[in-house]
Amino acid sequence: LAKTTQPISMDSYEGQEVNITCSHNNIATNDYITWYQQFPSQGPRFIIQGYKTKVTNEVASLFIPADRKSSTLSLPRVSLSDTAVYYCLVVQSGGYQKVTFGIGTKLQVIP
Amino acid sequence: DTEVTQTPKHLVMGMTNKKSLKCEQHMGHRAMYWYKQKAKKPPELMFVYSYEKLSINESVPSRFSPECPNSSLLNLHLHALQPEDSALYLCASSQDLGPRVQPQHFGDGTRLSIL
Protein backbone atom coordinates (compact mmCIF):
# COMPACT_ATOMS: atom_id res chain seq x y z
CA LEU A 1 0.00 0.00 0.00
CA ALA A 2 1.23 3.47 -0.89
CA LYS A 3 2.23 5.56 2.11
CA THR A 4 0.71 9.03 2.32
CA THR A 5 2.20 12.22 3.75
CA GLN A 6 0.15 15.29 4.57
CA PRO A 7 0.58 18.33 6.84
CA ILE A 8 -0.26 17.65 10.47
CA SER A 9 -2.24 20.87 10.87
CA MET A 10 -3.49 23.93 9.00
CA ASP A 11 -5.29 27.11 10.00
CA SER A 12 -7.63 29.10 7.77
CA TYR A 13 -9.99 32.03 8.15
CA GLU A 14 -13.66 31.64 7.43
CA GLY A 15 -14.62 32.24 3.83
CA GLN A 16 -11.22 31.29 2.43
CA GLU A 17 -10.46 28.44 0.09
CA VAL A 18 -8.37 25.72 1.73
CA ASN A 19 -6.06 23.40 -0.16
CA ILE A 20 -4.64 20.33 1.58
CA THR A 21 -1.95 18.48 -0.34
CA CYS A 22 -1.12 14.82 0.13
CA SER A 23 1.98 13.06 -1.18
CA HIS A 24 1.83 9.43 -2.27
CA ASN A 25 5.05 8.86 -4.19
CA ASN A 26 4.73 5.08 -4.58
CA ILE A 27 1.12 4.99 -5.73
CA ALA A 28 0.34 1.98 -7.92
CA THR A 29 -1.53 1.83 -11.21
CA ASN A 30 -4.70 0.38 -9.68
CA ASP A 31 -4.78 2.69 -6.64
CA TYR A 32 -7.43 5.34 -6.07
CA ILE A 33 -7.11 8.46 -3.91
CA THR A 34 -9.81 8.95 -1.32
CA TRP A 35 -10.39 11.66 1.28
CA TYR A 36 -12.35 11.40 4.51
CA GLN A 37 -13.35 14.02 7.09
CA GLN A 38 -13.64 13.30 10.79
CA PHE A 39 -15.19 15.47 13.50
CA PRO A 40 -14.44 14.81 17.19
CA SER A 41 -16.36 11.85 18.62
CA GLN A 42 -17.71 10.89 15.20
CA GLY A 43 -16.72 8.36 12.58
CA PRO A 44 -14.95 9.45 9.39
CA ARG A 45 -17.12 10.68 6.53
CA PHE A 46 -16.28 10.09 2.86
CA ILE A 47 -15.65 13.36 1.02
CA ILE A 48 -14.34 12.61 -2.44
CA GLN A 49 -12.43 10.07 -4.49
CA GLY A 50 -10.49 10.19 -7.75
CA TYR A 51 -8.02 8.44 -10.00
CA LYS A 52 -6.62 11.25 -12.14
CA THR A 53 -7.18 14.87 -13.24
CA LYS A 54 -9.98 16.65 -11.41
CA VAL A 55 -13.06 15.50 -9.56
CA THR A 56 -15.65 17.86 -8.11
CA ASN A 57 -18.71 17.28 -5.98
CA GLU A 58 -20.97 19.48 -3.89
CA VAL A 59 -18.50 19.85 -1.03
CA ALA A 60 -14.97 19.65 -2.47
CA SER A 61 -12.68 19.30 -5.45
CA LEU A 62 -9.82 16.88 -5.85
CA PHE A 63 -6.90 17.70 -8.11
CA ILE A 64 -4.56 14.91 -9.20
CA PRO A 65 -1.59 15.66 -11.49
CA ALA A 66 -0.62 13.39 -14.34
CA ASP A 67 2.08 11.56 -12.36
CA ARG A 68 -0.42 10.90 -9.53
CA LYS A 69 2.32 11.22 -6.92
CA SER A 70 0.31 13.83 -5.05
CA SER A 71 -3.23 15.10 -4.75
CA THR A 72 -4.85 18.27 -3.44
CA LEU A 73 -8.17 18.49 -1.67
CA SER A 74 -9.76 21.89 -2.18
CA LEU A 75 -12.50 23.14 0.15
CA PRO A 76 -14.17 26.31 -1.17
CA ARG A 77 -15.09 29.09 1.27
CA VAL A 78 -14.66 27.18 4.53
CA SER A 79 -16.83 27.82 7.57
CA LEU A 80 -16.28 27.08 11.24
CA SER A 81 -18.11 23.77 10.79
CA ASP A 82 -15.34 22.58 8.47
CA THR A 83 -12.97 22.35 11.44
CA ALA A 84 -12.06 18.66 11.43
CA VAL A 85 -9.33 16.15 10.64
CA TYR A 86 -8.95 15.36 6.94
CA TYR A 87 -7.47 12.01 5.93
CA CYS A 88 -5.91 11.22 2.57
CA LEU A 89 -5.97 7.52 1.69
CA VAL A 90 -4.67 5.48 -1.19
CA VAL A 91 -6.94 2.50 -1.77
CA GLN A 92 -6.15 -0.45 -4.02
CA SER A 93 -8.93 -1.49 -6.39
CA GLY A 94 -9.76 -5.01 -7.48
CA GLY A 95 -9.47 -6.81 -4.21
CA TYR A 96 -9.84 -6.51 -0.49
CA GLN A 97 -9.64 -2.70 -0.65
CA LYS A 98 -7.63 -2.62 2.52
CA VAL A 99 -7.76 0.89 3.85
CA THR A 100 -4.89 2.43 5.80
CA PHE A 101 -5.42 5.85 7.33
CA GLY A 102 -2.48 8.21 7.55
CA ILE A 103 -2.00 10.70 10.36
CA GLY A 104 -4.45 13.21 8.84
CA THR A 105 -4.49 17.01 8.69
CA LYS A 106 -6.16 18.91 11.52
CA LEU A 107 -7.86 21.91 9.90
CA GLN A 108 -8.77 24.73 12.26
CA VAL A 109 -11.07 27.38 10.79
CA ILE A 110 -10.76 30.72 12.53
CA PRO A 111 -13.58 33.31 12.70
CA ASP B 1 -27.16 10.95 11.67
CA THR B 2 -25.29 8.05 10.17
CA GLU B 3 -26.63 5.06 8.28
CA VAL B 4 -24.42 2.75 10.32
CA THR B 5 -25.67 2.40 13.89
CA GLN B 6 -23.38 1.31 16.70
CA THR B 7 -24.42 0.34 20.22
CA PRO B 8 -23.66 1.09 22.92
CA LYS B 9 -22.19 4.58 22.45
CA HIS B 10 -20.16 4.23 25.64
CA LEU B 11 -19.01 1.15 27.52
CA VAL B 12 -17.02 0.79 30.70
CA MET B 13 -15.90 -2.69 31.63
CA GLY B 14 -13.49 -4.46 33.90
CA MET B 15 -10.69 -6.65 32.64
CA THR B 16 -12.55 -9.83 33.53
CA ASN B 17 -15.87 -8.88 31.95
CA LYS B 18 -17.35 -10.17 28.71
CA LYS B 19 -19.23 -7.66 26.56
CA SER B 20 -20.21 -7.19 22.94
CA LEU B 21 -20.27 -4.23 20.59
CA LYS B 22 -22.97 -4.17 17.96
CA CYS B 23 -23.15 -2.60 14.52
CA GLU B 24 -26.10 -2.50 12.12
CA GLN B 25 -26.60 -1.19 8.60
CA HIS B 26 -29.58 -1.42 6.26
CA MET B 27 -27.98 -0.12 3.07
CA GLY B 28 -27.63 -3.59 1.58
CA HIS B 29 -23.85 -3.43 1.94
CA ARG B 30 -22.04 -6.76 1.86
CA ALA B 31 -18.69 -5.65 3.31
CA MET B 32 -18.34 -4.64 6.94
CA TYR B 33 -15.34 -3.51 8.95
CA TRP B 34 -14.12 -2.98 12.51
CA TYR B 35 -11.58 -0.26 13.28
CA LYS B 36 -9.90 0.83 16.50
CA GLN B 37 -9.04 4.48 17.06
CA LYS B 38 -6.93 5.74 19.94
CA ALA B 39 -7.11 9.39 20.96
CA LYS B 40 -5.53 11.77 18.40
CA LYS B 41 -4.56 8.83 16.17
CA PRO B 42 -6.00 7.61 12.87
CA PRO B 43 -8.35 4.62 12.73
CA GLU B 44 -6.61 1.24 12.48
CA LEU B 45 -8.25 -1.62 10.61
CA MET B 46 -9.00 -4.71 12.72
CA PHE B 47 -11.30 -6.98 10.71
CA VAL B 48 -13.05 -7.10 7.34
CA TYR B 49 -16.09 -9.22 6.52
CA SER B 50 -17.30 -9.90 3.02
CA TYR B 51 -20.63 -11.63 2.48
CA GLU B 52 -20.67 -12.59 6.17
CA LYS B 53 -17.27 -14.30 5.95
CA LEU B 54 -14.11 -13.03 7.59
CA SER B 55 -11.77 -11.77 4.87
CA ILE B 56 -9.10 -9.89 6.79
CA ASN B 57 -7.85 -10.18 10.36
CA GLU B 58 -5.09 -7.66 10.99
CA SER B 59 -3.36 -9.84 13.58
CA VAL B 60 -5.80 -8.75 16.26
CA PRO B 61 -5.45 -10.44 19.69
CA SER B 62 -7.91 -13.25 20.34
CA ARG B 63 -9.53 -11.30 23.17
CA PHE B 64 -11.37 -9.55 20.31
CA SER B 65 -13.74 -11.92 18.52
CA PRO B 66 -15.78 -10.67 15.55
CA GLU B 67 -19.03 -12.18 14.38
CA CYS B 68 -21.24 -11.44 11.38
CA PRO B 69 -24.58 -13.22 12.00
CA ASN B 70 -26.22 -11.79 8.86
CA SER B 71 -25.65 -9.22 6.15
CA SER B 72 -26.91 -6.33 8.29
CA LEU B 73 -25.23 -7.06 11.60
CA LEU B 74 -21.67 -7.10 12.84
CA ASN B 75 -20.65 -7.86 16.41
CA LEU B 76 -17.38 -7.56 18.26
CA HIS B 77 -17.16 -9.80 21.33
CA LEU B 78 -14.78 -8.64 24.04
CA HIS B 79 -13.21 -10.75 26.77
CA ALA B 80 -10.34 -10.22 29.17
CA LEU B 81 -9.40 -6.86 27.71
CA GLN B 82 -6.45 -4.80 28.87
CA PRO B 83 -6.40 -1.10 29.81
CA GLU B 84 -4.54 -0.34 26.55
CA ASP B 85 -7.60 -1.58 24.66
CA SER B 86 -9.48 1.55 25.74
CA ALA B 87 -10.33 3.34 22.50
CA LEU B 88 -13.09 4.33 20.08
CA TYR B 89 -14.25 1.28 18.14
CA LEU B 90 -15.64 2.15 14.73
CA CYS B 91 -17.77 0.03 12.46
CA ALA B 92 -18.01 0.71 8.73
CA SER B 93 -19.68 -0.80 5.70
CA SER B 94 -19.25 -0.60 1.96
CA GLN B 95 -21.16 -1.99 -0.98
CA ASP B 96 -18.81 -4.92 -1.46
CA LEU B 97 -15.16 -5.83 -2.00
CA GLY B 98 -15.52 -5.90 -5.78
CA PRO B 99 -13.23 -4.46 -8.43
CA ARG B 100 -14.30 -0.84 -7.93
CA VAL B 101 -13.16 1.12 -4.88
CA GLN B 102 -16.19 1.75 -2.70
CA PRO B 103 -16.54 4.51 -0.11
CA GLN B 104 -16.87 3.26 3.43
CA HIS B 105 -19.75 4.45 5.60
CA PHE B 106 -18.79 4.74 9.26
CA GLY B 107 -20.81 4.68 12.43
CA ASP B 108 -19.98 7.10 15.23
CA GLY B 109 -18.33 4.40 17.28
CA THR B 110 -18.42 2.90 20.73
CA ARG B 111 -16.11 4.57 23.22
CA LEU B 112 -14.71 1.76 25.34
CA SER B 113 -12.99 2.23 28.68
CA ILE B 114 -11.28 -0.68 30.43
CA LEU B 115 -10.84 -0.33 34.17
Written account of the structure:
The complex is a heterodimer of chains A (111) and B (115). Chain A is mostly beta strands. Chain A contains no helices and nine strands. Chain A has strands spanning 9-13, 18-23, 31-38, 45-50, 53-56, 61-64, 70-75, 84-92, 105-110. Chain B has strands at 4-7, 10-13, 18-25, 31-37, 44-50, 53-57, 64-70, 73-79, 87-94, 105-106, 110-114. The relative contact order of chain B is 0.34. The A-B interface holds A 32, 34, 41-46, 49, 87, 91-104 and B 2, 4, 31, 33, 41-45, 48, 50, 55-56, 88, 90, 92, 94, 97, 99-109, 111.
Short précis:
With 111 residues, chain A is an all-beta fold. Chain A has strands at residues 9-13, 18-23, 31-38, 45-50, 53-56, 61-64, 70-75, 84-92, 105-110. Chain A is 0% helix and 49% strand.
Any descriptors?
heterodimer; A: five-stranded mixed β-sheet; 9 strands; B: 115 residues; mainly beta; seven-stranded mixed β-sheet; four-stranded antiparallel β-sheet
